[in-house]
Amino acid sequence: MITIKDIAEMANVSRSTVSRVLNDSGYVSEDARKRVERVVKETGYVPSEHAKSLRTKKTKVIGVILPTIQTETPSRIVTGLGRELSKHGYQILLANTDHDKEKELEFLDLLKVRQVDGIVLIATNTDDKLMEKIKEINTPLVMIGQEAEGVIHVTYNDYRATKELTRLFIQKGHEKIAFIGVDESDRSVGHFRKQGYLDEMAAQGLSVDKAWVQKGIFDIESGYEAMKQILNHAVNKPTATIAVTDRLAIGAMSYLKEQGMDIPTDMAIAGIGASEMSQYLEPPLTTVDYQNEKAGEEGAKQILACINSKPFQERIVMNYRLIIRESVQ
Amino acid sequence: MITIKDIAEMANVSRSTVSRVLNDSGYVSEDARKRVERVVKETGYVPSEHAKSLRTKKTKVIGVILPTIQTETPSRIVTGLGRELSKHGYQILLANTDHDKEKELEFLDLLKVRQVDGIVLIATNTDDKLMEKIKEINTPLVMIGQEAEGVIHVTYNDYRATKELTRLFIQKGHEKIAFIGVDESDRSVGHFRKQGYLDEMAAQGLSVDKAWVQKGIFDIESGYEAMKQILNHAVNKPTATIAVTDRLAIGAMSYLKEQGMDIPTDMAIAGIGASEMSQYLEPPLTTVDYQNEKAGEEGAKQILACINSKPFQERIVMNYRLIIRESVQ
DNA sequence: AATTAATGTGGAATCGATACCACAATCAAT
DNA sequence: ATTGATTGTGGTATCGATTCCACATTAATT
Question: How far apart, in whole angstroms, are the C-alpha atoms of residue A273 and residue A276?
Fold first, then answer.
């Protein structure tokens, strides 16, 4: 392996001078600079990141903790993160928790040890334990998808989006609207989306039958099950359903079709997330575009600002966009 | 930050001894070991990976280069990789090329500089330039999804899978079978899958109309377009279509439905990849499960074997599994 | 001409670990 | 009692960079 020492010898200068040229710092004569640059180019020399990190305590690596990369939301966020980070010479160290909260904590420690310059956490909860650990490791950190006091975060307007979605249904004349959510330990997807729905229903003077509100996990199958529950247990059958993710909506649609029900005539439905599939469903699914890639880019910008002690925003709320398609009428 | 020096002082031994305890190497008295271990536990000390890497030339990091993480195949592979690698204390450094061949080369260099212990390349081509660069960087490397001479690779049996898929259609009585592929610069998905189809057609004495064979890129939209081409340009209308990915199949189905055609009566269809959506389509899609996660795990095992100079297999071909659903009859 | 300031350069310490080597102490074998 | 393993420990060089500091040279100022 070729090192700074070799370059120094070949260019007939000291290692200090080579370093100065490389980092564009301190005084270097035009002559010496030229010689060093020539040798560097000829040899294709690139300084060792590890030696550099050891000395400077900077690694140019950002750790990204996520629950899975098998769904569109985190994938898109990581794509956005990667795009922005690579512009500034940063790389992503991936930590996949596979939805395991314990691993979330372990990875925070591990990334700390790896001395990443910053951490992006695509979180599914904001437990006390997690928040404590975040403070404890004392590394620049941005949370995406959940809001959290005292932590830089990029979130979506879950409450308003769901409220608007609910209003859309009501405007179309629906009064009996069902809701497929997820566990409320996920504040964003579980709690706020549900609250938006409930509040809008209440605001419009509509009552909510208990059987209309079901819960799934983050897969298609549980959307199917949730819709089954709704149809089997509701005395007063709803005419519309809001699912908090597109996959849940897809599962729900699957059950509806199996029962020979027409969408949207017998049951209107909407999801959230603007999955690629949503427009190819039958009928195309009404959904909400959250601009996940942009959220990732935004998160990257904030973590970089934080790392470089530039001004940053602690709280960023992304805009959303309703995509109204034939699954609603 | 707490270092080995601090531990040494606190435990009243030399740094060498601490290192020996930490790495379980050389002679250490029971007494000294106890003292060091106690101090380590009390302080929560963890050695700096960078200092370690600088000295040992090992980083416990595997670079993963992929074309995108927004589709299921690479996502699943990375999940499998991550699962296996993390078992052995390795982390993943992610390099997303966004389908840019140039970036593929750049990242190979970059990962080399980062001194990753190994590289996993989820490749979409096997260009000479790429192969050359792979030899040049001289880092343990495993390619997943493409086969390549002189490089450890994990592939799928693309040729046989497509051949079997074609045979399935023929057995069901189809004689006019269309094919939606991708560019043949992608040997696995483009070339071999097409060849499997062509060979089986020929083997069964069936001719292939030129208009039946169309090409798309890796998205739903181009599957739609390809099917449009087939139906508009084929004089002799096919009764079945094989698409080389589920997404292409989904696009094709979308066009068929738009034209009021029934699947599978008017057109039978099959995809490849066993996407999560495939079973929720209408009708559920016949497809091929490639066990991507397992391929990832397998790739991880090989790269680890290679790194630790243990015996490894240069060539691993994964098994596939036909999933026959209602889109074929 | 003498002093000060600006410009260049290299030596050496440092970052936090590992690993080789020398030396000490203990113990067994001749 | 001497030799020779075996066991245990610490000193020091090293990995490949950066950075501080000292020193040399040149240019600018009085």
Answer: 9
Q: Does A276 touch chain B (CB under 8 A)?
A: yes
- The amino acid that residue B169 corresponds to is F
Element (H, E) at A69: none
Identity of the residue numbered B19: S
| Closest to B289 in 3D by CA, of B301, B300, B278, B302 | B278
Distance CA A107, CA A96 (A): 9
**B114 closest CB neighbour out of A91, A110, A114:** A91
Task: Tell me the sheet residues that pair with A87.
Answer: none
Is the shortest CB-to-strand distance from A26 to strand C under 7 Å? yes
Specify the DSSP class assigned to residue B310: -
- Give me A290's structure tokens: 């959250």
Which strands sit side by side in the sheet containing B152-156, from one edge to the other? A315-318, A152-156, A141-144, A118-122, A61-66, A91-96, B91-96, B61-66, B118-122, B141-144, B152-156, B315-318
Establish, for the pair of chains A and B, how many residue pairs have beta carbons separated by less than 8 Å: 109
Domains of chain B: 4-47 (1.10.260.40), 56-156+292-319 (3.40.50.2300), 158-289 (3.40.50.2300)
Residues B13 and B32 sit within 8 Å (Cβ to Cβ): yes
The CB density around residue B190, as the number of other CB atoms within 10 Å, is 19
* Nearest nucleotide from residue A2 CA, by C1' atom: D16
- B161 Cα to chain A: minimum distance (Å): 24
| C-alpha pair distances (Å), A25 with each of A18, A19, A33, A239, B69 | 10, 8, 11, 69, 39
Among B residues 5-24, those touching chain A with beta carbons less than 8 Å apart: none
pLDDT for B128-176, tens place per residue?
Answer: 999 999 999 889 999 999 999 999 999 999 999 999 999 999 999 999 9
DSSP A97-155: -TT-HHHHHHHHHHHHHTT-SEEEEE-S---HHHHHHHHHH---EEEESS--TTSEEEE
Say how far residue A58 (Cα) sits from the centre of its chain. Answer: 25
B3-45 pLDDT per residue, tens: 999 999 999 999 999 999 999 988 999 999 999 999 999 999 9
pLDDT in tens, A227-268: 999 999 989 999 999 999 999 999 999 999 999 999 999 999
C1' (D11) to CA (A259) span, angstroms: 80
Tokens, residue B258? 């738009």
Residue B54 touches chain A, beta carbons under 8 Å:
yes
* Nearby residues of B245 by Cβ (< 8 Å), 6 or more positions away: B182, B189, B218, B223, B271, B272, B273
Strand C reaches within 7 A of the A17 CB: yes
**Per-residue model confidence (pLDDT) at position B1:** 85
Measured torsion, CA atoms of residues B54, B22, B117, A20, in degrees rounded to the nearest 10: -10
> Which residues have CB under 8 Å from B25's CB, separation 6+?
B19
Check residue A285 and report its DSSP letter: P
Q: Which two tokens stand for residue A110?
A: 């591990």
Instruction: Using an 8 Å CB-CB cutoff, list chain B residues near A91.
Output: 93-95, 110, 114
